[in-house]
Amino acid sequence: MSTIDIETARRVAKLARIRVADDSLPQLAQELSGILTFMEQLGEVDVTGVEPMTSVTPMRLKRRPDAVTDGDIQNKILSNAPDAREGFFAVPKVVE
């Protein structure tokens, strides 16, 4: 069973850019430990032969053909560019 200490909870909050008061860190550490415990329990479940599902109700995802298209609107797109040359966006050189 994984447990999160207060320093780890402080670091996770900092990495997530969440301001957490020092007196709230023990509660955060406890909640994070609970999440890890739950994840470990899920890892113990045998899912052999179980197909992934997209929803709890059976439904088929809408699909479209996987065909490469360029949209045939190059001129329309390039008309918005401040500088376009030879069918491409022209940008200032940034690396020498």
TrEMBL record:
InterPro entries: Asp/Glu-ADT_sf_sub_c, GatC. GO terms for molecular function: asparaginyl-tRNA synthase (glutamine-hydrolyzing) activity; ATP binding; glutaminyl-tRNA synthase (glutamine-hydrolyzing) activity; transferase activity. The keyword Transferase applies. It is an enzyme of class 6 (ligase). It comes from the Bacteria. Keywords: ATP-binding, Ligase, Nucleotide-binding, Protein biosynthesis, Transferase. One of its GO terms (biological process) is regulation of translational fidelity. Pfam families: GatC (PF02686). It catalyses: L-glutamyl-tRNA(Gln) + L-glutamine + ATP + H2O = L-glutaminyl-tRNA(Gln) + L-glutamate + ADP + phosphate + H(+); L-aspartyl-tRNA(Asn) + L-glutamine + ATP + H2O = L-asparaginyl-tRNA(Asn) + L-glutamate + ADP + phosphate + 2 H(+). The keyword Transferase applies. Its EC number is 6.3.5.-. Belongs to the GatC family. Allows the formation of correctly charged Asn-tRNA(Asn) or Gln-tRNA(Gln) through the transamidation of misacylated Asp-tRNA(Asn) or Glu-tRNA(Gln) in organisms which lack either or both of asparaginyl-tRNA or glutaminyl-tRNA synthetases. The reaction takes place in the presence of glutamine and ATP through an activated phospho-Asp-tRNA(Asn) or phospho-Glu-tRNA(Gln). Heterotrimer of A, B and C subunits. This is Aspartyl/glutamyl-tRNA(Asn/Gln) amidotransferase subunit C.
